[in-house]
Design goal:
six-stranded parallel β-sheet; single chain; Rossmann fold; alpha/beta; 380 residues; seven-stranded mixed β-sheet; 2 domains; 14% strand; 16 helices
Length: 380
């Protein structure tokens, strides 16, 4: 089957949707029963591009903040280039892995990762909300089939847009083999560069933006006894998003005291090592369609403290500590539990490792190709 795949998400620093797009694209490119061609905005290619350089992590947010209507302008250009090629070439299916499909005269599969801009519009930049409000529902109605990362998002689409359940197929994401348990000796070269000690820091991973709710992680950290804060600093990994001034002001005194460390955007290799060396991953996100960082921590055998809302219980199950994302005291208590009780840490670590093996990118690719075949069979 010939697939047109929008790979423009690979042009930006790879967060959750970028990782999904990249691994799915690589999986499709490796299959003999799929002839995939990838659209990169200005050109098409049979090749899957590598991730951008880490330096791009600060460039893209700057462009979005300084160039008016940058999304709308980019979409107009992409639409023209996309239509020009798909009118000349024959594709059986167009797959849009990043929510908003471009116009296509044929079968369209769309992956919807979440409805966070509807549930929590105040937690997104206004331009993003305007673009989603303008383009999302028309694209949704054109879709021949909709993929979601979780059963939670399937329920969201049914509740908010009345989409028929048979048109929605949940396909869970996967985790790379890069994320695995590592010994203190293995993590030493990377951790020493960041002045970290294996098993002696708390970790939060995610773009610095309101929806990730890192302010609650900071509030919880401030409630910990001084001895714990000194011995187990809070390490933040992720690029700067938007609306971060209040968060940065909250962090400033703790950064000066050495209790909070900001590592910024890391390579995948360094990220896997930093996760593997953490005592726990704190993930109090308000709303997620899946939640890759908790799964990556689970695959490293690192217990997770995660929100008990949206899709996160589907991912974490009973392998971590689920908390109310608005309750900083509950987060602080969960941190102290894991810091003070090695037996519980060990039990959760073992369960997390076992559960993480259920989520693979090979399985994601196989189920996605099965969804393509379902679409083709429906019109045969």
């Amino acid at each position: 089957m010939r697939i047109a795949f929008n790979a423009t998400a690979l042009l930006s620093p790879l967060t959750g949707i970028g990782q999904y797009s990249r691994h799915l694209a690589m999986g499709l490119a490796a299959r003999e029963d799929v002839d995939a061609e990838f659209f990169y905005g200005a050109f098409w290619s049979k090749e899957v591009r590598s991730a951008p350089l880490p330096a791009a992590a600060s460039l893209f947010p700057w462009i979005r903040s300084k160039v008016p209507f940058s999304y709308a302008l980019r979409r107009v250009v992409q639409k023209q280039r996309f239509e020009s090629h798909t009118r000349r070439e024959r594709f059986d299916i167009y797959h849009e892995p990043n929510i908003l499909p471009l116009p296509f005269d044929g079968l369209t599969v769309v992956t919807v990762h979440d409805l966070s801009w509807i549930r929590f519009p105040q937690m997104h930049p206004p331009e993003r909300v305007r673009a989603m409000d303008k383009y999302f529902e028309p694209g949704l109605r054109r879709a021949s089939l909709i993929l979601t990362d979780s059963a939670f998002v399937k329920r969201e689409l049914m509740d908010v847009f009345g989409v028929r359940p048979e048109l929605i197929v949940p396909v869970p994401l996967g985790v790379e083999s890069l994320f695995r348990p590592q010994s203190a000796e293995e993590t030493l070269p990377v951790l020493s560069r960041h002045s970290l000690v294996h098993g002696q820091y708390l970790l939060a991973v995610g773009t610095l933006e309101p929806r990730k709710n890192l302010q609650v992680a900071l509030q919880a950290f401030m409630q910990l006894p001084p001895a714990i804060r000194k011995h187990y600093p809070l390490v933040l990994v992720g690029m700067t998003g938007w609306h971060t001034s209040a968060l940065e002001a909250q962090m400033a005194p703790m950064i000066r005291a050495g209790e909070v460390r900001q590592l910024g955007y890391l390579s995948r290799e360094d990220l896997a090592t930093v996760i593997a060396g953490a005592l726990t991953l704190i993930y109090p996100s308000i709303y997620e369609g899946f939640g890759l960082p908790p799964l990556e921590a689970m695959a490293c055998g690192v217990p997770v403290i995660a929100s008990d809302v949206s899709s996160l219980p589907e991912v974490v199950g009973d392998t971590g500590v689920l908390i109310n994302p608005h309750d900083a005291e509950a987060v602080a208590q969960a941190i102290q539990l894991l810091v003070n009780d090695p037996a519980i840490r060990g039990k959760l670590s073992s369960k997390a490792l076992d559960r993480s093996k259920e989520f693979t990118w090979d399985r994601c690719v196989t189920q996605t190709v099965g969804a393509y075949q379902q679409v083709l069979n429906s019109v045969a």
